[in-house]
Amino acid sequence: MNQLFYPTIDLFSYDLKSALNLSSEEIEEQRQDFLAKFPPEVRANFRQSANQTEYFDLFLDPKTGENEFDFEPQNPALEGYYYPVRINDVYGLQIDCSVKNLSEAQDVTSFADIKIEIENKIASDHLTIGYTWLVSGWLREEDSQNAATIAQACYEVLFPENNWRTGIYSEGDFLNGKFFEIWQRESKVQQHVVFLLFPNKDMAIKGAEFYSDWMGLFCYRHKITWAYQQSRTIKASLVNHYRKVDVNAKIIKQNQYNIQASNNNAKGSLDEIQGILDQYTIDLLKLTFQKQIIEINLENYQRRVELIKQKLSEVESELKNNLGKLSIFDNLVENKYLSQIDKDNDNMQLGIKLLENKINATNSKIEIEKGERDRNFQNIITFIGTGMAGTKLIESSQKTCEIFYDKESTTCENPTSRISITVGLILICGLLGWLFKYLIKKL
After folding, report:
1. What pLDDT sits at residue 386?
2. Which of 345, 215, 225 is nearest to 280 (CA)?
3. What is the reported pTM?
4. CATH hierarchy code of domain 224-369
5. Would the pLDDT of 261 be above 50?
6. How far is CA 252 from the centre of its chain?
7. 385 phi/psi in degrees, rounded to 5
8. How far is CA 152 from CA 157, 162, 193, 347, in A?
9. Per-residue pLDDT tens digits for 17-53
10. What DSSP element (H or E) covers 171?
């Protein structure tokens, strides 16, 4: 039978407090949503920091000075507490729940009851960044060499739908105990679970001193994965913008004869395309911003790992500790996340240049065609104007007639003949004027 002393779950959850694109009203709404997780008597003791410190305890009991507060689980065999904090622009919340028994080993199935109790506390919670399940307890003496087996049994109780072998991400040593990290990267929620199985009660008590460190470490980790997911959404938006512009440009090209007939429609389409390109540029800036978020939080993550290692060495130098595998996440961020965003940025920068060149070429073609139409129209006006000017040289239709016919002819009295002669003269003079203009251009 798989058993563990003092089975405990700490859920570390993170909500976005503020962002550059949030108004003051939206920031206050985020705050109220976070406060809604707690009972009214607790909200009255929430604090706001005057300055933007990196880490700030949001709750302070005026009587005890404690920065955490207890809650009564529905299951009387359990106990628990809340610990809310603000880490930069993020609200962090630790919900701790454990079996109220330090002297007897508990079956690992007790974790199911603990999880239900915690999930009841977050039933209406919509997380915007992420969460980590920290599962802990100390092993029976006879199970000291079976930490991996016990951890797997606990995991299968908590998440029976998941696979331990495919989810295990890293493992190491912590205060002479075992450290296991399980990360279901392919799932939509990217479930993150950490097991700390201590060799005895004393080490478990020392391990509790690291809760604030885990709070910060997991926060930076989730900010990184959240920002990367945001970058994937932004990239999809950029690709969509590119396709829209490309399709519209092709339609304009295919309908170039219609464009010649209705230049206003073409200009309207180009204005619409320009609007899409403006949004494309904004999304490029957003992509760069997500990269900066990842870089900042990766630096904070690495610093926090080093602080944990230093703290472990100060507890007792002879204890077995090996958290080096936490750097696996560093490698993922540097070699995949940041590298992928750089490639996407380069490709999308090239994409907008190609689109702008295509649109500029199309716009130039439209302007050239418009100029040609204007010139053709002007030539027609010149042609007719020259002809009309030529007729002015003839004083009257009667005199014109006398030039071509003798005085005995009745042709001059025929109005149809007069009109024909006038039109003919307009055409002849107009043609001569057009030829003269053409020869001038050639010279």
Report:
1. 55
2. 345
3. 0.80
4. 1.20.58
5. no
6. 31
7. -65, -40
8. 9, 11, 11, 43
9. 887 677 788 888 888 888 888 888 788 888 877 666 7
10. strand 168-174
